[in-house]
Design a protein that fits this description.
Elements: E1 16-20, H1 25-36, E2 40-44, H2 48-57, E3 64-65, H3 73-87, E4 92-95, H4 110-138, E5 141-146, H5 150-153, H6 160-180, E6 185-192, H7 205-210, H8 224-231, E7 242-245
Parallel strand pairs: 1-2, 1-4, 2-3, 4-5, 5-6, 6-7
Helix pairs in contact: 1-8, 3-4, 4-6
Protein name: Short-chain dehydrogenase
Family: Belongs to the short-chain dehydrogenases/reductases (SDR) family.
Organism: Asanoa siamensis
């Protein structure tokens, strides 16, 4: 695809960006938005063929792919190092990779608990730390960690364990922001509300939409602008923030 990037508002021209979970519903839209803003992307997910197809479809050039299944410290460290090697450094991390197992509380096994925590919480910490350490040496950067409305609500549709991990991510954002702020590394989070992706299955959609002031389910494209804002120099004095993108369903 030869479409030229749009380097207008929230420009990321020349910025080196790692996007995880890149083939997911929200991240697929983010990949296009980040590329249009001029970013050079390292795309990570579990499906290498799908990543390659996505990279080829994006505007701009110089994008690369790193297929990996994130679940622990070693994989997270290797991903950060591989991304920096491919791009020559790393200015921005946008981390969306996560897993959700919808189960009623009495049905949750230790394996279910461990799997969601390994991917959603442990890998997130070690990836964010590895990137932050790189950015510290570079003199600064931006990290955007995706949490969820469930960090505030406790989750809907049999998702207590998932919500617990996302609560940990929200706390992690604040702690890492305090740790790395003195080195010019900003750490923020985004908490989507109900968004039209496969992960939506099993949620109490009608009741949530009825309680949402904007009166609709979010679309993946609704997350592009907020992500570009936090990734770009436009948010240079913003860190430790969880940005609520829920159509008004949450208010905090």
């Amino acid at each position: 695809m030869t479409t030229e990037p749009d380097r207008g508002a929230h420009s990321l021209a020349g910025r080196r960006v790692l996007l995880t979970g890149a083939c997911g519903g929200i991240a697929y839209a983010l990949a296009n938005g980040l590329a249009r803003a001029g970013a050079r992307l390292a795309l990570s997910d579990v499906d290498g063929d799908a990543l390659d197809a996505l990279a080829e479809s994006l505007p701009g050039g110089g994008h690369t792919t790193l297929p990996v299944r994130l679940s622990g410290a070693d994989g997270a460290q290797a991903l950060a190092e591989g991304c920096a090697a491919r791009l020559g450094g790393l200015d921005v991390l946008v981390h969306t990779a996560a897993v959700l197992r919808r189960q009623e509380v009495p049905d949750v096994t230790e394996a279910d608990w461990d799997h969601q925590h390994d991917v959603n919480l442990k890998a997130t910490f070690f990836l964010a730390r590895a990137v932050a350490e790189q950015q510290r040496e570079q003199g600064g950067g931006s990290i955007v960690l995706y949490t969820s409305q469930s960090f505030w609500t406790g989750g809907y549709g049999a998702s207590v364990v998932y919500a617990t991990t996302k609560g940990g991510v929200a706390t992690m954002v604040r702690g890492l922001a305090r740790t790395y702020g003195p080195y010019g590394v900003r750490v923020n989070g985004i908490a989507p509300g109900i968004v039209d992706t496969p992960m939506l299955s099993g949620a109490a959609i009608d009741a949530i939409v009825a309680a949402t002031p904007l009166g609709r389910v979010g679309q993946p494209e609704d997350l592009v602008g907020p992500t570009l804002f936090l990734a770009s120099p436009e948010s240079a004095f913003v860190t430790g923030t969880i940005l609520n993108v829920s159509g008004g369903w949450l208010a905090y």
